[in-house]
Amino acid sequence: MRIGVITFPGSLDDRDAARAITIAGAEPVALWHGDHDLHDVDAVVLPGGFSYGDYLRAGAIASHAPIMAEVIEAAGRGIPVLGICNGFQMLAEARLLPGAHTRNAHQQFIRRDQRLIVENATTAWTNEFAAGEEIVIPLKNADGRFVADDETITRIEGNGQVVFRYAGLNPNGSMNDIAGISNERGNVVGLMPHPEHATEPGFGPDMPDAMRSGTDGLRFFTSAMASLIARA
Amino acid sequence: MPIIVVEVMPKAEILDPQGKAVVGALDRLGKSKFGAVRIGKRFELTVDGPVDDALLAEVRELAEDMLANTVIEDVVSVHEALPVSVAGETH
After folding, report:
1. pLDDT tens digit string along A37-64?
2. For chain B, how many structural domains are there in total?
């Protein structure tokens, strides 16, 4: 099973995403923003970072990168696509996901271990969680405030497209405490926090039983693998 | 060469934290008569040829598609920049 990770100019977490894919038991495939080729991968990850320095708007310029034509086409075919942080911003800018991101309401970059509620455990990237389960993965961003118009919020809430919600204090002013969403089909998921940074004991978020022991992010990737097996 | 100006503003209902921070600063300077500040963007596109309605329409389409994100922003103006007055001219 091969999961591609696209590197854009300014991507930071592409290597962590590739490592997470390896730990999950799949083969990571390095993809390049300037190519028109997904190398027949089974799933795609758009990693975090600051593509193009977040110029224009976070994710805006990357959403027009050559390879995004293939990502949009693959998403339409039902291939699992995960956008993490800057990748989530790209998916919104590319209109693969509804809504948009603005500067955090408090204007500051935030980095912390973030508690999330898994609202939808049926998507391609969350089927190994339980609905209502609380997980902890790192959050780190400046433009993480999810916004959409009232009609869109009502629609995605009604469709179950809100996949993750911030538990406890809302870290950035996102509407309805939304941390991550999916498309209607559930194969495209985007979220601001970083599952790839919570896949290896000793390097994850602090947990009640031990520091840096959190590995809740691993199940994002094993979920994608399970959904691919189910599709095959 | 002609310049086409595109002006983009955050939608009224979207919180503009930058504008809010500036209002706070103005208030601290004693300029509390300015109740609100919103910060937008101005793009200047230099073009080779003459500016006509077709070109302005093309730029507007580009503005709605890429320069602005219409989920959170409005394109409030697309127009040709007024020519800069030549040195020596007083009117």
Report:
1. 999 999 999 999 999 999 999 999 999 9
2. 1
A145 interaction partners in chain B (CB closer than 8 Å): 15
Q: Which of A147, A198, A203, A197 is nearest to A177 (CA)?
A: A147
- pLDDT for A231: 83
What's the CA gap between A129 and A156, in Å, rounded?
Answer: 20
**Is B50 a domain residue?**
yes
- As annotated, the active-site residues of A are 85, 194, 196
Is B8 part of a structural domain of the chain? yes
Contact B4, B78 (CB under 8 A): yes
Residues of A contacting chain B (CB within 8 angstroms): 56-57, 60, 64, 92-93, 98-100, 102-107, 145, 147-149, 173
Flag if A104 and B17 touch (Cβ within 8 Å).
yes
Which two tokens mark A149?
């118009």
Residue B85: inside a domain: no
**Nearest-CA distance B60 → chain A (Å):** 16
Q: What is the CATH number of the domain that holds B72?
A: 3.30.1280.10
A97-132 pLDDT, tens digit per residue, is 999 999 999 889 999 999 999 999 999 999 999 999
Collect the ranges in chain B with pLDDT lower than 50. 91
pLDDT of residue B73: 97
User: Containing domain of residue B33, as a range?
Assistant: 3-80
- Decide if B45 is inside a domain: yes
